[in-house]
Design a protein that fits this description.
The chain is mostly helical. The protein has one domain: Hypothetical protein af1432, CATH 1.10.3210. The chain has 13 helices and 2 strands, in the order αααααααααααββαα. The protein has helices at about 5-15, 25-35, 40-50, 55-65, 80-100, 110-135, 140-150, 155-160, 175-190, 195-205, 215-225, 260-265, 265-275; strands spanning about 250-255, 255. The protein has a two-stranded antiparallel sheet. Helix 3 packs across helix 5 (about 80-100) and helix 7 crosses helix 10 (about 195-205). The longest helix is centred in the middle third of the chain and has 29 residues, at about 110-135. This is HDOD domain-containing protein. It holds the Pfam family HDOD. It comes from Pseudoduganella ginsengisoli. InterPro entries: HDOD, RNase_Y/CdgJ.
Length: about 280
């Protein structure tokens, strides 16, 4: 099967909801479903997270990050971490775990390198989206963080399937964009029961149309994606390694500028990225 036929085959499966996830994703999906329940009590969330050592460690780490620890008081337990973060942020952490687990079964060195770069890009986008939401667009920062985490989930899915179709990720990124990104991305997001606002914002990024200054969640995601210093390996020409030129984007925000906000928020962004990269 050639590359384009393979993209179309996986896209058709995604459209039908026939998605093959690694086995370690199943437990995380159950945790996500529990946290999505509006009746989920904090005690239930604590017990679910304590049952997963990796999730427990990440929950405490992000609760102690600059972004969420305004007082500077360090905590060491899951319960106070859950109380500080709230269910919305926990949903983002579980989403991050699911996205990373999609790439955990990859053994091919080239694909592993792509997955690693894609996650680094994702962490930057998520952290930047949270800051831009809070300081610029004034949309919900938790939703912006969550959307940044899942915006490339279709890419992680195709990388998790790529070993079944040798050579599918060779060549130029336009092939992925044209023949797989939207259909596969949409299918995976639906399978993960993403909220409509998140779905719409990711689709806005695929369309590539945004306002400057940004106005809504879709604009927030697009700007964060443009500003991320690490590019997605699924959208960059061969040999390209940085997007430093995007850092020239600037505009007035109140009494300051976007550049002022990014410099003021640099420690916060780095703290969030460090936690997501754990």
């Amino acid at each position: 099967m050639n590359r384009l036929a393979a993209f179309k085959h996986i896209s058709a499966q995604a459209a039908r909801g026939e998605l093959a996830f690694p086995t370690n994703v199943a437990a995380s999906l159950k945790l996500q479903q529990a946290l999505n329940d509006p009746d989920c009590h904090a005690d239930t969330a604590v017990k679910l997270i304590q049952a997963d050592p990796l999730m427990a460690a990440r929950t405490v780490a992000i609760a102690n990050s600059v972004a969420y620890n305004r007082s500077g008081t360090q905590i060491s337990g899951v319960r106070p971490a859950v109380q500080r973060l709230g269910v919305r942020t926990l949903q983002s952490l579980v989403a991050a775990l699911i996205v990373r687990q999609l790439g955990s079964t990859i053994t091919d060195p080239a694909l592993k390198t792509m997955a690693s770069q894609l996650w680094e890009h994702t962490a930057h986008v998520a952290a930047l989206a949270q800051v831009i939401a809070r300081r610029v667009t004034h949309v919900d920062p938790d939703t912006a963080l969550f959307t940044g985490i899942v915006h490339e989930v279709g890419g992680f899915y195709i990388l998790s399937r790529a070993q079944e179709f040798p050579g599918i990720m060779d060549g130029y990124p336009e092939d992925w964009v044209e023949h797989g990104e939207v259909e596969i991305g949409r299918g995976v997001l639906r399978k993960l029961n993403m909220p409509e606002a998140v779905m719409n914002s990711v689709e806005a990024m695929w369309e590539g149309l945004r306002a400057l200054p940004p106005e809504n969640l879709g604009d927030t995601l697009l700007l964060a994606n443009d500003l991320a210093p690490v590019p997605s390996p699924l959208h960059q020409p061969p040999g390209a390694t940085t997007r430093a030129g995007a850092r020239t984007i600037d505009f007035v925000v109140g009494d300051g500028t976007l550049d002022d906000i990014l410099r003021e928020s640099d420690e916060e962004v780095k703290s969030l990225i460090a936690v997501l990269m754990l």
